[in-house]
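User: Continuing from earlier, I have the next pair ready.

Assistant: Great, send them over.

User: Here they are, in order.

Assistant: Folding the first of the pair now:
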Amino acid sequence: MSPTSSTATTSTARLEQLLPQLFQPDTQTGDRYLKIDIAPNLPALIALEDVQESAWMPAHMVTPIPNLPACVLGIMNARNQVLCVVNLAQLLQISGSTVHRQHYSMLTVRLPPTLAAPEDTNLLVLAVQEIQGILRLQPKDIESPIGDFGATLTPFLRGCVEREGQSIPVLDVKAIAAAPPLTSR
């Protein structure tokens, strides 16, 4: 055995001893969801399969466009694509919004493909209050949202989840994309 391979083996063994969770198979089950805050103290979940990326962007990267619905903050250029940026709280008619901030927490979500916009180009950017992290849920954990949320929010939900004594809405990206302020023009 050469000295280099001996050092590599020793380093791997040392890492395995210090960080055993890295060397264990992933035993977590369930679908992955991104936990966000739509507004202060209003968490929500979005299926991670619908999220292309999340980022923290300076407000000057969004170009306002006149005569659009109030929930549309403007457009931005990302990876040679022009994307519409929507304030999710305003779109869902929830008080407490991300307007007039120096930075936005943004999610780029994939929308269902259409004839005019194939799958790889049909994207929408949602500005949210904060991005919290990822958690896993079993499909059986998602319950009906009827009665837990207002009539303005319910049409945009897949369901809700009970966590730490709080009912957290699970958002439906397809329903959000079909919201009247985004489709009535």
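And the other member of the pair:
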Amino acid sequence: MYYTLQQALEKLGIPKSTFFDMVKDGRIRSYLPPHRKRGALYDKEQIDAMAAIQVATGQKPPTDEKLIFGNSTEVDLAQEVAIGLDLYGADDIVPLNKLRQWWMRNPEMFLALKRQDGVLVGYSSVTPMKPETIMKLIRDEIREADVDPNDIYPYSIGVPLECYIASLTVVPGPKQREYATQLISDVAHFIQHLGERGVYITTFYCIGATPEGRRIAHNLGFTEIYTSPDGDRSGFKLLTSDEESKLAQFYMKGFNDSQQDHQHNGSNQQPEQIRKEVEK
């Protein structure tokens, strides 16, 4: 299913120039029907998921500046620790030396949002992690600084993974909510790209430590599975099989496309078959 340009613009409510920038850098997929030179169409599921993220955050992404999203460098990690210490305090921040150990295990999982001048405005991570360790984090039995680097996995093809989405953090300021929307949207695209690579993720988890964070998690389709005794901290879970969640749909579209490509190339191994082989 596809939207026309006008339908896509109306759905997202962003300027045409911003829309075409997103098409150019791959954040929005276009399709030009055969025998046409003009009149490209745009992936409906992808546009709908982006619009759902805007609704979840209550804000559109910034339209007056171009932001750059990608994997964090080692230099970025140091900046992220400094920002986190300022915002959250030492108890909730992974020390830089341990963060580097995590980075060595899976450098792809750290994600940074920057201005064109290189200034970091937001960061997050999508961390494949030992399920037992994730649940200890969710139940507040340990903090992120306690996680053993050996409990973190690389993104593997053909191995079921559970991922912990850590700290969607943006710097304070007048554009804080706009940056948050952009960061969440970019993380969603990153998750879809993992699916396109054939990275098989069964479940996502996150923690909401503020009313705003908990509201966004609910709006993105996560289910609350833990609430702290004081009610100020919640743990959330999202199955990628959840057809009601736009974020899950976003990931599954990418993963299903990868499976179709594998079938076309002669491989017909399905996720359930993969799981059974791993569990043997």
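Worth noting for the second one:
The chain has ten helices and ten strands. The mean pLDDT is 86.
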